[in-house]
Amino acid sequence: MKWLRKLIFRKPLGNSIFDVKSRLIFVFSVIALTSSSLVFFSFSLYLIFNENTQLERHLRSFESIAKDHFILVKDDFSQLGPYVRAYYSEAALDKELKSLLPYEEGVVTRFRVFSEDGFMVYYAPFVESSGARVPLYLVIGSRDIEFGDDSWNILMLISFGLMAFLIAFLRFSLHRLFDGLMSPVSELCEQLTANKEEDFHVSERSIDEIKALKHHLNTYKQMKERLAKQEMMFAKYASHELKTPIAVVLGAASLQAMKDDPDFQSKQRERILIAANNMQATVEVLLSIVKQENVRDAHQLRPICSQDISLDKYYKKLNAGVQILLSVEPDTQINLPPAVFDMVLKNLLDNAIRFTEQGKIEVVVTSNRIKVIDSGCGLNEEAGTEHGLGLLIVKRLCDSYGWTFSLTENLSEGCCAELNLSC
């Protein structure tokens, strides 16, 4: 029992694998002792509470023997075996048994069964061959037969044997348990600490939950890398969206210094105002995404109609023979602020125009759906890369305002960019 004393008198345990193992050994030992004791006392209580039932069955089993014995000896009293007495008349009963008359027929009546002088009486009258009715009283003492005496030593051996088996099996079980559970955890901890580029891995003997943890860690790692790439793309897109109007402003300002013509000066000022307004809208959208200020008004609906959507600035970008068709459902209301809606539509149309050389571009707007359908080259690998860069901002805006975004290829030609409001 040296290991038990070490567990009791050692310093407080920490949370290392060795300390957890020591705690488990102690807990398993307590469980083994407790379960063995429960087995022992359960069987003991079962024997105690069922001893009288067994004694009653033993008494009933002498009914046929008593009847056959009476036919042979015709006596009022017989000793059937070392414990059972048979009385064949009320006169033959001793004083105490007479004082308790009458007895219920066919029932074993118990008297003071938990006392040392307790007894049971089984009244089972019968009719002999001559037709005479013979009263039969079978009597046995409550403590004459102790059914538990022969089983007590067996119970003790079973209980102590079970306890010894459980404690002996403990260390082997814990060794297997820690090999299958704690070793993979230690491996994952070392891999996390090392912060290496390769994916996390564990042995094939690991339990399914550890393998699932490894899978999720690899998924989160890939997600982290993907988000980092998306952040770079987002920064690249933001830089592009801001550089273009700034270049327009600088160019127009430089041109203003070249001519004093009022019409020329007015035209350059108009270019500067348009570029500044576009840049302001872009900055508001980008700040709304970064600061997540749009969450407060994500459920505020705003009416929109065909007159609110200006497509003039896109016509000059179209290839020859390509037309834009706009359809807005009556009484349409959406939760996208004007600046956000313009930014979304701008990205969808810019991508559709870039890949559509002939045919048409359809814009469909309803309260819960926005679709831009083009007849361009579809989703090949090269186009997919360009689409991914241009439409990253659209996905960000959709996530912020509760919309889902999908880009699918049409069955005939071209592709369909679709936004759906989540329920």
From TrEMBL:
GO terms, molecular function: ATP binding; phosphorelay sensor kinase activity
Chief location of this protein within or outside the cell: membrane
Residues annotated as transmembrane: 24-49, 152-174
PROSITE patterns documented for this protein: HIS_KIN
Annotated SMART domains: HATPase_c, HisKA
Catalytic activity: ATP + protein L-histidine = ADP + protein N-phospho-L-histidine
The EC number(s) this enzyme carries: 2.7.13.3
PANTHER family given in the database record: SENSOR PROTEIN CREC, SENSOR PROTEIN RSTB
Protein name stated in the entry: histidine kinase
Taxon lineage: Bacteria, Pseudomonadati, Pseudomonadota, Gammaproteobacteria, Vibrionales
